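EI: anyone free to look at a 413-residue chain?
SC: sure, send it
EI:
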Amino acid sequence: MSPSGGGPDTVRPWGSKPVAGLLLTGGGARAAYQVGVLQALAELRRGAQRAGNPFPVITGTSAGAINAAALACGAAHFDRAVRRIAKVWHEFRPEQVYRTDPLALLDTPGRWRMLMGLARLLARWRRRQPRSLLDNAPLAELLARLVPLERLPALMAAGHLHALAVTASSYNTGEHVTFYQSARPMQPWVRSQRRAVPGLVTHAHLLASSAIPFVFPSTPIARGDHVEYFGDGSMRQSAPIAAAIHLGAERILVVGSGRMREPVDAAGPNTFGGEPSLAQIAGHALSSIFLDALAVDVERAERINQTLALIPEEARRHTQLRPVQLLVISPSERVDVIASRHVGALPGVVRRAFGHHNGGNGTSAAQSAALASYLLFDSGFTRELMALGRADTLARRDEVLRFFGWCGAAPHG
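SC: here you go
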């Protein structure tokens, strides 16, 4: 057993050299932070005169699954892949990700119609049967351009990439499913309420993994002789780090989408006055889905590593136990506070539907902007998060260099 319920193999599946893995977590528009981290890593890698893909194993969840897949598709040219991903996030607009047609039926300016013809409005809603508040069809078009998954087999055959895994949650079975594609056959794993499925990773898997509950529609995926409907991979994800471990990673860079540990005096869910708004409740629910599991899993991995350190190495060699080195990089600032400065960039119907107000400051503005932080696919917000990700990573330069072994070693090709 290893941290996060990792794989049981004591023999390294990819050779004698420890394999580095990357985990990009969920968080909607917050995933822009990951891109800043990748930019800093590319910069440090060039400074250390290193080449090649630093992450043979790449895993991702939700919006992090999209970043992970885009990075994997460029594994032969890491810097180029990072630049390509950064260009998209640097110029993001909400209409590249979603349309607001379903939500428009409930738009505040349209409430006069309820007074004049409530029956007609309800009939229209029943006839259209919207499956979600927003339509993510534009995201599917973006993925077709940004993520050429057909390249993966050749990249794996050439040794540039060992494995890619993305996760989604089945609405049919309640299971958390990891879909993975690997250079060599690897035994799928099954744990309580979670399982792994080998095969080709497709755009449908990416859409499923990033389908924020209620906000985006579920995605149908064929499973054997039947079809299941999947939603965001952060739902019911109890062990985010596990996939990378199962796929052979022994040191893993984990990039979060929220601060791992809030200061004791930080504003909490009960610090605002009066009854919470719909935006505050929805933001609180999404933060529970996207942020809590990672913090718990990291603590569990660190605790297991500490326990393993107490076992003599000779004794551990004859067991299935092995430590996993983690480097966790997460925002040093509250992302909802950053989002509060950009709420005005949300489409008007989204702002009105969830009671967002542009401007404001302090705890109330930040709490109201928590939901917005997941939907703010706008360049003003994403650029600020990318800059924060880059700054946070460069601030830990020495730690990053040690993690990759990029300090004091001769350059290699």
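EI: DSSP finds 17 helices and ten strands in the chain.
SC: 👍
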